[in-house]
Backbone:
């Protein structure tokens, strides 16, 4: 539901636009269940590079599985096969670990945005890449994605402000691109549609059962395209 992003919409416009989104998604071509071509996964944390990278990756998994409050530095150290106090060589506190995880997620999203904007001139192509990259993060790195979605409230005020500001900036850029690709949308319509697309990715990617389905990636991408109102890449498989 777009209201989870904390934006106050005109109720009538929200109702009408959500109805339009539902119709667009319902009319998507179901296609077939062909598996998606293999995509080389990106690594948010590479434990081969440093002990700190390994610890951030393990912490992201534990925070996602148990919640930040239920994980201690000892738990993180144990997962890495090291004594809890040894973690202080890499992080000053558990909140410092969370800051490292969340900054990595936010910076990755910013890099994806930069890549899409510098690779394509056409706003439709930019949006296609943004959707594909966001789906990749949600499906292939669900632990990092889940922590990014759920745990920023734990941050101290300055870090929380940085993370929420980064998140708002990326959503506003999606809205701007959607309005450029679809000039028939009002600002509110574009906002509702972008929020709807992100909500669907956020919610459906959380299903472990669905994530293992061979065609789910393309289905999720195309559903997000239907929400935004842009056509999928004709070179990609149908949903």
Residues:
């Amino acid at each position: 539901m777009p209201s989870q992003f904390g934006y106050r919409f005109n109720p009538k416009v929200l109702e009408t636009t959500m109805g339009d989104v539902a119709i667009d998604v319902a009319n998507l071509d179901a296609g077939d269940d062909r598996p998606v071509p293999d995509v080389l996964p990106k690594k948010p944390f590479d434990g081969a590079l440093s002990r700190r990278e390994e610890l951030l990756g393990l912490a992201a998994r534990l925070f996602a599985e148990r919640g930040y409050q239920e994980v201690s530095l000892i738990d993180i150290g144990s997962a890495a096969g090291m004594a809890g106090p040894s973690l202080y060589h890499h992080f000053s506190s558990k909140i410092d670990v969370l800051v490292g995880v969340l900054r990595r997620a936010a910076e990755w999203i910013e890099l994806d945005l930069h890549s899409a904007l510098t690779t394509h001139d056409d706003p439709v192509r930019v949006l296609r890449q943004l959707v594909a990259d966001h789906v990749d993060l949600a499906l292939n790195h669900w632990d990092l994605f889940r922590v990014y979605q759920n745990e920023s409230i734990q941050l101290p005020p300055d870090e929380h402000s940085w993370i929420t500001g980064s998140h708002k900036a990326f959503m506003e850029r999606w809205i701007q691109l959607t309005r450029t690709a679809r000039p028939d949308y009002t600002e509110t319509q574009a906002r509702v549609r972008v929020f709807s697309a992100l909500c669907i990715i956020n919610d459906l990617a959380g299903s472990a059962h669905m994530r293992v389905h061979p065609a789910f990636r393309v289905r999720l991408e195309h559903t997000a395209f239907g929400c935004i109102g842009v056509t999928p890449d004709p070179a990609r498989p149908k949903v």
Residues 94-119 form the longest helix (26 residues).
